[in-house]
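Anyone? Bumping this.
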Amino acid sequence: MNGQSSQQQPKDGRHDDDAALTEFLASLMDYTPTIPDELVEHYLAKSGFQCPDVRLTRLVAVATQKFIADVATDALQQCKARQSAVIKDKRDKQQKDKRLILTMEDLSKALREYGVNVKHQEYFADSPSAGLDAASREE
Amino acid sequence: MRGTSLRQKQLPPRLDGVGPISESEFSFTITRVAVAQICHSVGFYGAQNSALEALTDITTRYLEAIGKLGAASSNSDRRTQSNLPDFIVALEDLASIQGFPGLSDIRSHSLWTSAVINDLMKLVKYRDEIPFAQPLPPKRSFVQGAKRKLLKHTGDNKRLYCNGGSWRHVPSWLPPVPVVEEKDKEQKGEVKWECWEEREEEKWDCRRETVERECNNENFQVSGKRGKVRFRMGVGLDNKVVRVRNLRVKGVTAGIGKRVNN
């Protein structure tokens, strides 16, 4: 009896997993990911992935969205940690600098954990006013 | 301003401002907007242009990596179309850098219980959906993509250039694919099951008749005259190796069991 019950357990578990997966795939029909379907289809077709199922396309979109959100969350933590260290020195600029902005520095630190090595210049003039902030601080 | 506001949703113009936007630039721009939306949902107020472009580039590469790994998985199973297990395998491969529960016994467990899929389920269930900022424009043709269809070569041979549509992954420098002409087009259309069985039976009867006719034919002989083959066998003293020399072969269809002279 014990042997039978132990054999039945994984079967039931698998059945539950299948049911959950089927339900999840069905729920994708109503879900709209941030990355549009056409865009995902374009990149998948470019790399040779052929699948007419819309649900799978949306699943790819959801997976990509999750990856980017994870990276962005890590970069946000880096940004917050950096700002908390800087603000100790100058409390008057606390309000101005509180806005969280995605920078190359934080992004490269966050991406290092995901196996992406970003090499960027130590100083990169992103916009004409990129260096003005530092110059005003020195004064 | 140090960064670009993420709320700026209008598509940026082409950097050089010359000529129409190409397909890759167009898709990159749309991805950029989607990535900016995701960053905004995470809690960022703005982003440096370079950082946003780097993240967009990683997004496109991630999408292509999923596609390539999934296609490789399906091709190794002798399929052209990919399915859910292929996608799960691709995703597990990509997630193996960070690690996930159950990575140590990867492939041995059922794919349906994969932790990667469970994470996606939780994301869909608990996170609010953020639809894309603007409705996408209808499908448009690009200047470079004017040939983006299976083009029929108008020359001497019927050949297809596959550099567009769902054949986008085939490089354009490859030679054209020859057209496979289907001999019996009747089978291509829908045929009733009973009719199809009858037709198959007729074909079998025809084949059987021809085989029987050939076997009963008394004049049935092997066509063509067989040539003569001569060999000389001896021991080569120089290299102490037994040599077999083929002296002369007459005719092309020299067979085994013919006369051999020492």
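Late reply, but here is one note on the structure posted above: The helical segments of chain A are 2-27, 37-46, 54-87, 94-97, 104-112, 132-138.
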